[in-house]
Predict the structure of Glycosyltransferase family 2 protein.
Amino acid sequence: MLDISVIIPVYNAAEFLEKSVTSALPFEEVKEIILIEDKSSDSSLEICKKLEEKYPKVKLFQHPDKENHGAAASRNLGIEKSCGSLITFLDADDYYLPNRFDAERKLFNDPGIDGVFGAIGIEYLTEKGKREFQSKFNDSSLTTVNYPAAGKDVFKGLLGLTPKTFGTFFHLNALTIRKTVLDQYRLRFNEFLRVHQDSDFIIKLSYHCYLKSGIIDKAVAVRGIHDNNRITKIVKYSPQYNQRQQLFWNSLYEWSKKTKLPPDASRHIYLQKKSFDLSLKKGFLKNISLLIAILKNPYILKTRYRFTYMHS
């Protein structure tokens, strides 16, 4: 039987937290639900304490200084505190569906598989949240990939290096990973990234580990969309958007310099980073820097965000 630790970072999630926790409780495979409370300003801490008292599976932790450190640091603390052989994640405003571990029960019989990922659905909790989400991501009912994949094809697909469009990403809520491989490759979330730390983690994970798609045609978890979803607050190609993308791609670039990636992957990561470096420059300096970059490597004009420099 699977032995799973569910890690839930908690910050100002009082309205949603109990539903999130209770969605993970019924699974016999779930041995513990780890709540990392990150100095919320609402009643989340009190709810965490009540859930820990009520349910033996629930374990509550805070950062040693009891200060706010962000989702990446909270997930990292959860990994350190976990006892299960398998790690899963769940955001405090989301919940699992009854089929959450159907694929895992079969696929993890193969010791060569390090991780399994699936699809998540969305639930609109507020009208404002719905409008903001649909303006950024259209009205897609599933966050998923376009076709089954495993191994290096997942890594290539996430970087857009496959002949067919794989899909931009899969969500942490639908990922299950062996804890041993996280420790073996020292894989943790980049705590300097306030957003996109999940995408950064998943791309690095997909290179080092053998991931396999599970249920990708229907949801195994649900993401709650409401007024305070951070990712929908950022206007695409705004200075804030470009800066956060630059931090994300720079994180991957620094990692790539220490990792023996295929040449096409290294080049792609570098050019994406360079594209956003350019987007943060201004005026005449931007134009000169862009011209120099094109002369050095014309492929920069083929990056996914090749026009970002025009919008800042």
